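Tokens as discussed.
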């Protein structure tokens, strides 16, 4: 899949690409990290959970990559492989897309997927200045390392892969029109209420060129008798109580993105939708795939 002219990436002043700096001070340090030695402490997670989504992620940004909330590399790599097959069915194009957008890019874990697949332009958008600052620092570091070593970077990124640009904007009102032929998002849909999801999908549809693909991994629902099912149900219940009693709300739910509902919202936004099998996807106890890739093509 290829485009013609350079994609129009001009955004309004409120969403202008810029050198992002965190708007909040780094969180104080406390003993007892929760997930890894470099991860956040329980107190830091509590402070984040009692903040807004934006401020919470500004606070978590320095340690986000040391939490299980970051999309694992195995999922990113499998997604890249699957999208390469969709963009170049005959397998002849290593980078079959012209321009890519990572919606809710966070610290930039998914940016490497786009750099491996896109020839010209890669853009990450998020509304957390702290997360964008970390993403920008990582891109600068990887670029310097690549210039010194040459060759191919990890994740299949060629040495000449596009330099990422970052835009601070709300995913519910994306500032792009017809600029991309690929958009991805990883682990972000649970940060939108079901009533907000339509605006996100309409914005992505508007940002894509005709025939462009919007893709994201989606997990198979856990069995009601599994521990995971009740863990996720319990987490969502706690978040609903928290949001009923505390302001500002922190929207983060795990069980609000059933495939049937997501598919319906994508169809309403103007996409043709398919669930694409992913080679090497983890298997559930019954042998079925643990996750697949939603590929929504702009009609």
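Sequence:
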């Amino acid at each position: 899949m290829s485009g013609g002219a350079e994609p129009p990436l001009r955004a309004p002043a409120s969403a202008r690409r810029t050198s992002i700096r965190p708007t909040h001070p780094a969180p104080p340090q406390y003993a007892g990290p929760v997930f890894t030695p470099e991860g956040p402490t329980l107190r830091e997670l509590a402070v984040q959970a009692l903040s807004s989504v934006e401020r919470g992620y500004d606070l978590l940004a320095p340690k986000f990559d040391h939490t299980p909330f970051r999309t694992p590399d195995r999922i990113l790599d499998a997604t890249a492989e699957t999208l390469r097959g969709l963009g170049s069915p005959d397998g002849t194009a290593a980078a079959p897309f012209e321009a890519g957008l990572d919606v809710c890019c966070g610290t930039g874990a998914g940016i490497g997927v786009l750099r491996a697949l896109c020839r010209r332009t890669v853009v990450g958008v998020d509304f957390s200045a702290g997360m964008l600052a970390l993403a920008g620092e990582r891109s600068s570091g990887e670029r310097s390392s690549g210039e010194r070593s040459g060759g191919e970077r990890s994740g299949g990124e060629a040495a000449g892969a596009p330099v990422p640009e970052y835009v601070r904007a709300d995913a519910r009102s994306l500032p792009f029109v017809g600029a991309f032929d690929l958009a991805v998002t990883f682990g972000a849909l649970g940060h939108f209420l079901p009533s907000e999801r339509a605006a996100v999908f309409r914005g992505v549809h508007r940002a894509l060129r005709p025939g462009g693909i919007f893709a994201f991994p989606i997990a198979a629902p856990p069995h009601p008798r599994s521990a995971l099912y009740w863990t996720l149900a319990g987490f969502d219940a706690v978040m609903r109580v928290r949001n009923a009693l505390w302001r500002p709300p922190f929207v983060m739910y795990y069980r609000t993105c059933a495939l049937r509902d997501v598919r319906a919202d994508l169809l309403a936004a103007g996409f043709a939708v398919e669930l694409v099998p992913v080679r090497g996807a983890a298997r559930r106890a019954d042998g079925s795939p643990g996750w697949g890739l939603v590929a929504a093509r702009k009609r």
